[in-house]
Amino acid sequence: MKVAGTHYRTIWVNEDGWSVDLIDQRWLPHELRVENVTSVEGIAAAIRDMWVRGAPLIGVTAAYGVALRMREDPSDAALDAVWEELHETRPTAINLRWALNEMRGLLRGLPENARASAAYKRAAEIADEDVELNRGIGRHGLAIIREIARTKKAGEPVNILTHCNAGWLATVDYGTATSPIYLASEEGVPVHVYVDETRPRNQGAHLTAWEMAGHGVPHTLIVDNAGGHLMQHGMVDMVIVGTDRTTSIGDVCNKIGTYLKALAAKDNGVPFYVALPSPTIDWTVRDGVKEIPIEERSGDEVSLVWGRDEDGRTRQVRISPEATPAGNPAFDVTPARLITGLITERGVAEASEKGLAKLFPEHAKS
Ligand code: MRU
């Protein structure tokens, strides 16, 4: 998407032809910093320390990590080792395993001297495919927004609530949950987005709000606990969120707090949609609550808050007693029964085994 007139993706190969440039998202919304990464260790740190984040982008970044390793050492042993090293960076987003499997599956079948160039080519394809998948999600989600817009008085916006950042920063471009929003906004369908701040890391306040402001989409930042109240008062027409892993029966794992939004939406009859590209579906898992590993991150993310002061200094401040321990599960699972529909690149699926199998028959269990 465009930032101050320049089109950016979140990740690309540097003009040297081999190292990887990526937006270091830790500095947003205050600064757009691009980092150059030259090693697998750098790629692993960028994923683990959340310079890049969001399920699709984590997968693409890992694919480039494999390419970097193949350039140094294209052996089978190096391929297996880089798979392990990158796979353990973050446990919940399934796109990481998907991308690593794509890369290893392809490269295993090639002679060693062909692996480095094939790895760069496949990583670039995965990045391009992500952009296309998100465009597809956008088109199908736009139809839903248009439908809701028809029920509103002339000029009244469709009020959409979103949680975390499933925007272009979480993907290579366009985003998943934001793709229909951007298309609606471009088409002139009036939309207004309630942006959950998304504690503890504030991806909503830092990233989604920055995206919405940058692209001229009317939006309001709200605290995570406001959603239920707004829904009770008819102020939310629909919820759209992203996902880090969706199971074969339609359970959705996403940023912590998503489940509570879905409960509030159900109680208030507000449609709750999840936008996802097919690499986010884990066909090996059924019961999301029991089977998806939930990342537990440092309690410091809860006790300490990052911000920038009036003098332009980025600072961290403590908001709880030093002696108070903090727990920090990063994701939760929303059961399929609370979900109105799964917006995929192939269309909108019912959140159920049957619904997903209908759209993705190649994965259906016979
Ligand atoms: O911890 P993060 O910032 O990687 O979590 C991101 C999310 O939960 C997103 O909603 C999800 O990855 C979907 S991104 C298209």
UniProtKB/TrEMBL annotation:
Q: Does the keyword Transmembrane helix apply?
A: no
Task: Kindly identify the residues recorded as the active site.
Answer: 244
Please provide the record's keywords in A-Z order.
Amino-acid biosynthesis, Isomerase, Methionine biosynthesis
Where substrate binds, per the record, is at 53-55, 90, 203, 254-255
Q: Which SUPFAM superfamilies does the annotation name? A: NagB/RpiA/CoA transferase-like
Q: Where is this site: Transition state stabilizer?
A: 164
Q: What is this protein called?
A: Methylthioribose-1-phosphate isomerase
Source organism (scientific name): Nitratireductor thuwali
